[in-house]
Amino acid sequence: MDTPLVVLIVLTSVAVTSPLYEMVFGKKSLKYVQYLTTLSLLVSLILLISSTLSLTPQESTVPHLLRNDTLGSFFSLMVILVTLFVSITSFDYMKGNSNERIYYSLLLFTAIGMTMLSFAVDLLVMFVAWELMSLPTFILAGYNKQDKLSNEAAVKFFILGALSSGILLYGISIMFGITGSTNLDVISQSLTSLSPDMLPFVIFSTISILAGLGLKLSIVPFHMWIPDTYEGSPTTVSALLSAATKKAGFAAAIRIFVVIFPLFYFDLSLALSIVALVTMTLGNLAALTQKSITRMLAYSSIAQAGYLLIGIVVLPYTDLGLTGLLYHSFNHAILQASAFLAVALVRLKTSSSSLDSYNGLSKIMPITSFCLALSLLGLAGIPPLNGFWSKLILFAAAVDGGYTWLALAGLVNSAISVAYYLLVIKRMYMDETSIKAIKEPFMFISILVFASAIIIVTGLLPNVIYDIAEDITISFLANNPV
Amino acid sequence: MEPLINYFIVSAALLCVGIYGLIAKRNAIRLLFAVEIIINAAIINFVAFARYHDTPLITGQTFSLFAIALAATEAAVGLAIIVQAFRLNNDIDVLELKKLRG
């Protein structure tokens, strides 16, 4: 089956029609919208899981635009899973908002953009998917219209997001000028037979594309909007931004860099390794000093982008790099979504996201505290949770690819990061509070418990996801030699 | 026919204007203009490169049509957000937006 097209059709049919149900069904329509959104995401998720596990997917009907390969299925599986988490938890989080129906439609549009981006092998489709992913998130970030903080988050996000697509478009236009095509396969062929005096243009184009992508991937120096936007926007949306849109951006980055790397991989790899080092160090050091947990998680998300970047740095040297990148993307998506959604629940119930409101949380919201603690430990990379194994693979890949210093820097950074993660857990479990116990909503809790179950199971059985990532790497690199 | 480099110079100049606008201006609407100028610089590139390619290409024009449509969408979303910012703050100076601080 042609998975990308089927998934896109399923999601689009719901996303386009769901805002109209209010006219037909009146007040009841909200329930229908919620159920249909969940149902369409579940159907897509099942399709994508089966397509990821089948190692010989059928060729797509538009093979020069969307390629039906396991790499794309894996990334879209991740983003659809996170979108599913976010949409179910939003039943409670968004309750009472006047435009609740449109919210689910926008979530689905973001999911469509991310799915397209994971499968796209043409720069035109990639750019359209990029915009389709970005535009709904600008609106979602400012969804609480009367809230000044939410609006400020949206303004900052919009200006930098629009800049990112502008710069990305400029980089693509130069690449089109050099190679005369927007298809990544054709680009890859024409770049190998390129005259050396065109190299400056390729470098300029690469830097532009990297800057455009980097704004979404939260790479330093393009990270300034991250903490503000994650703090101001509704926290479920922050979960979506940090766990899903970033991963889709990495899918696009892998596809583009596999093509560009063979040209001048030595310099580019070194440059990216420095960016990775600065990203993880700055993210971890800034997270240490934060007073609000959403800002702390935002900086930790920046630091994790630094770890993920190691996978791209060593792409030309070792297969382990891509495996580690895929593996850590999956784990990071689950961990970050779980952490942000737990924070969303606390924010919903106590209307505060400052670290002080986490004092003694384990006594008033025991299940939430447990899930949050688990995902924070996973992000810190404590064995036997899944975050440990994928970080291990990434650092091993760095050593294997000749970047031992980067692996060491990563280890030091992981050690630093344990400090601020444990601080939150200490506040939740050791400190006292005067607030009475709070009832935790059932849907929210079931999602958190489900995410925690994934964290524990994939941590205790690390080879499940690792084997899938390895198979994907082998089949991807066989088609796209670096 | 004009040499290709002239078109490229215009587009590079527009890119510089756009980046200057993003750095130097504080009004959110002007920042939106600056981004649109960058997108238009890329559109000029697409059309010029497609026209001057050894074999005539349609991809460049197609891409520029897509880019124009997407730029319009982006402006619509951006203006909606900025209008709401003006309603809340009576001001669209982006440097005055500093409630979110670490």
Main attributes?
heterodimer; A: 482 residues; mainly alpha; 19 helices; 79% helix; globular; B: 102 residues; 3 helices; 75% helix
How many angstroms does the end-to-end distance of chain B come to? 56 Å
What Rg of chain A, in angstroms, do the CA atoms define? 21 Å
Order of helices and strands of chain A: HHHHHHHHHHHHHHHHHHH
Mean pLDDT of chain B: 90
Radius of gyration of chain B over all CA atoms, rounded: 17 Å
Helix content of chain A: over 70%
Shape of chain B: elongated
Structural class of chain A: mainly alpha
Main sheet attributes: strand count, strand direction, barrel closure of chain B: none
Give me the count of strands of chain A.
0
- Say how many strands of chain B there are: 0
Number of spatially distinct domains of chain A = 1
Low-confidence stretches of chain A: none
Task: Please report the two chains with the greatest interface, counting residues with C-beta closer than 8 angstroms to the partner's C-beta.
Answer: A-B, 45 and 45 residues
Oligomer: heterodimer
Structural write-up:
The complex is a heterodimer of chains A (482) and B (102). Chain A is mainly alpha-helical. Chain A has one domain (3-479). Chain A contains 19 helices and no strands. Chain A has helices spanning 3-17, 21-25, 29-53, 70-93, 100-119, 123-141, 148-179, 184-192, 199-217, 225-232, 235-288, 293-313, 319-350, 361-364, 366-380, 386-400, 404-430, 442-460, 463-479. Chain A is globular, with a radius of gyration of 21 Å. The two termini of chain A are 29 Å apart. Chain B is mostly helical. Chain B has three helices and no strands. Chain B has helices at 4-24, 28-52, 59-89. The N and C termini of chain B lie far apart (56 Å). At the A-B interface, α6, α7 and α10 of A face α1, α2 and α3 of B.
